[in-house]
Write a structure and sequence with these properties.
nucleic acid binding, nuclease, EC 3.1.-.-, 3-5_Exoribonuclease, globular, alpha/beta, 19% strand, five-stranded mixed β-sheet
Length: 181
């Protein structure tokens, strides 16, 4: 696996519903959680969450229960998806680094939403699927969720599960274990 000295970990949160997507709405990114991992030392040098005001959906009560993110929070503090991508590019130069996520969802969702909004995909080609990498390194028959991986490594969950800013940091810790073992 090819990696750069710094790896950008991304964890997305998106609008969601209990059951089917309501007519006229679609899954949309509402938070880009970022952590920058020094691949040698394991130090997390940056950690940030970019809140995004959805344009084609609303935050459901189910979504708020899962993520703690409310529509009101996004209305007050969220930026447009385009502004969030520009912030990601300006602050992190993501096309220069290996990047990682826990599973393929984040990669697929980011590509899908960029295409849907007519925005250039900002990430580089080198992506690490931490979920698969962890399962392989730990010798698991089937992959496990992020919380399960943390428990297997005796690493306490830091922050709020299903908040991108916190999950990115937790995924970085799992990835560092994978890189060192």
């Amino acid at each position: 696996m090819k990696t750069t000295d710094k790896i950008i970990i991304i964890d997305l949160e998106a609008t969601c519903w209990q059951g089917a997507v309501p007519q006229g709405q679609q899954n949309e990114i509402i938070e880009i959680g970022l952590a920058v991992l020094d691949s040698e030392t394991g130090q997390i040098t940056k950690n940030k969450g970019i809140l995004i005001k959805p344009q084609r959906s609303h935050v459901s009560p189910f979504c708020t229960e899962l993520t703690t993110i409310t529509q009101d929070l996004l209305d007050k503090n969220g930026v447009s998806f385009e502004d969030a991508i520009n912030e990601l590019i300006d602050e992190y130069n993501p096309d220069l680094y290996t990047w990682a996520s826990y599973g393929q969802y984040d990669l697929n969702m980011l590509k899908k939403q960029c295409k849907s909004f007519g925005i250039s995909y900002p990430m580089g080609d080198e992506h690490i699927n931490v979920k698969e990498h962890f399962a392989e390194k730990f010798g698991l028959q089937r992959s496990t969720g992020m919380n399960g991986a943390l428990q297997m490594l005796n690493i306490p969950l830091e922050g709020t599960h299903h908040r991108g800013i916190d999950d990115a940091k937790n995924i970085a810790k799992i990835l560092h274990w994978c890189l060192k073992n």
